[in-house]
Amino acid sequence: MIGGSIFPLPVWASIRRPLPSNRALAFYHTHTDERLKVVYCKNGHFLSSALEKVNYILRDHRNDDIRPIDTRLLDLLFRLSRKLGTDEPFHVISGYRSPATNAMLCRMSTGVARKSFHIKGKAIDIRIPGAGLRELKKAAMKLKIGGVGFYPQSDFVHVDVGPVRYW
């Protein structure tokens, strides 16, 4: 085949650039007023002390329950910040949610999934200063990594590392 490709277009769309061996993120938790800027991966290795700090800031702020955050979610956020060309901290509305908190939120709203990826440490609700919600949503969707939910009335975008889907 001359000038063509042996791969169909969907295969090319799924190929991702390798991540750099050193990766950092910054967070501002909107409910606790806590900030964290951390190198979570150095020389291609996740740093346990950094992950503990991430787990803490992304804890269930209602009851202080902590669960390990999936490192794929951190890498998704890293890719998202690069796609948007920003070093601004992610403003966190909700990271990990305990089953009790999630059940309470389900009773209060029809928009909360009973088997939310938040319970598994695989989802986060965010916004980024200087980036509009639509811009954030579009950038997340272009990554084609997981779920992307758009909540303009609540002023956040949900991203997770579950199956690719949009709402």
Give a structural overview:
The chain is α+β, with helices and mostly antiparallel strands and 167 residues long. The protein has a single domain (19-166), classed as Muramoyl-pentapeptide Carboxypeptidase, domain 2. The protein has five helices and eight strands; from the N terminus they run H-E-E-E-H-H-E-H-E-H-E-E-E. It has helices at 9-14, 48-57, 71-84, 99-108, 133-143; strands at 23-29, 35-42, 45-46, 90-94, 123-127, 147-151, 156-160, 165-166. It has an eight-stranded mixed beta sheet with strand order 3-2-1-4-5-7-6-8. A hairpin with a 4-residue loop joins strand 6 (147-151) and strand 7 (156-160). Helix 3 packs across helix 5. The longest helix is centred in the middle third of the chain and has 14 residues, at 71-84. It starts with 8 loop residues before the first helix and ends with a strand. Residues 1-5 and 9-14 have low confidence and may be disordered.
